[in-house]
Write a structure and sequence with these properties.
The protein is 31% helix and 13% strand. The chain has 280 residues and is an alpha/beta fold.
Length: 280
């Protein structure tokens, strides 16, 4: 294990048979049929569709503690189970890590490089769907509220200043040329642009070509070039918050920053709100 919340493919391969570890492949946007998982996944990994497992069924929010406990227990997890995530696209694995941490599960990690690095190293993949784990007892836990910031507090931060707002979207989205990411439908908000004062750091700049995280020194330089110092109060956002959690992960787990929150409403909320300022 390289960091408390980041594991290497070699470490994970050595722990695939550990009953205290569960590997979860997150099917993100464009993976509604679990295409990547079915084409080849890490042996024993189960697949979660991100909205089905991580969101409330009705509200644009996360499951309440009792429901969160029910879902994890039904999936065979206990409060002590080490959950290792990877995703397709990669940011969904990090988003799942953030969501579980926010909902109170502390023993959770991300696979560095995900499926891409695993496959590049010649490690075994399987196509048969893994058998579900037997249901387990999971006790409800409190949410970790300091990990998250809501729109009213973001608006106040824009008005008063003093906080570093980081936008993890593509250059086209940040510059107001699109509301959706390049290569997909240009949908997601009625207005294009960025939160006033936001500084741009595309989440892919934090990764090597094999989707592993870059060295701590390289990462630190990228954030400090945007004015994000260790003592700064930082807000990260993107379009739906998946890419924003990649910035959060690097800041808090690799670089050790302590004052970071994710605005998970992100541009799908901000770009549709009446009366909020937009910058281009």
């Amino acid at each position: 294990m390289q960091h408390e919340s980041l594991v290497s493919s070699a470490w994970l391969e050595a722990h695939l048979d550990d009953p205290k570890v569960i590997v979860i492949d997150i099917a993100g946007l464009g993976q509604e049929q679990m295409q990547a998982y079915k084409a080849g996944h890490i042996p024993g990994a189960v697949c979660w569709k991100w909205k089905d497992r991580l969101w409330d069924e009705r509200a644009r929010d996360f499951p309440a503690p009792d429901e969160f406990a029910r879902r994890l227990g039904a999936g065979g997890l206990t409060n002590d189970t080490l959950v290792v995530f990877y995703g397709a696209p990669m940011q969904f694995g990090v988003y799942a890590w953030w969501a579980l941490r926010y909902c109170g599960h502390r023993n959770v990690a991300v696979l560095d490089g995900g499926r891409k690095r695993w496959q590049a190293e010649g490690r075994r993949l399987m196509t048969d769907e893994a058998a579900p784990r037997a249901a387990a007892k999971y006790a409800p836990v409190a949410r970790n509220e300091p990990m998250r910031i809501l729109r009213d507090d973001v608006l106040q931060a824009v008005s008063t200043g003093g906080k570093v707002i980081l936008d993890g979207r593509s250059p086209e989205e940040y510059e107001g040329k699109r509301v959706g990411g390049p290569g997909g439908p240009d949908v997601g908000a009625v207005r294009a642009g960025r939160i006033p004062g936001a500084r741009h750091l595309h989440y892919t700049d934090l990764l090597d070509a094999d989707e592993r995280f870059r060295s701590a020194g390289e990462l630190r330089a990228l954030f400090q070039a945007r004015g994000a110092a260790p003592e700064s109060e930082i807000i990260t956002y993107c379009r739906m918050s998946h890419r924003a959690t990649v910035l959060y992960f690097v800041l808090t787990r690799i670089l050790g920053y302590e004052h970071v929150r994710v605005y998970d409403g992100s541009w799908t909320e901000w770009g549709n709100l009446v009366g909020v300022p937009v910058e281009r």
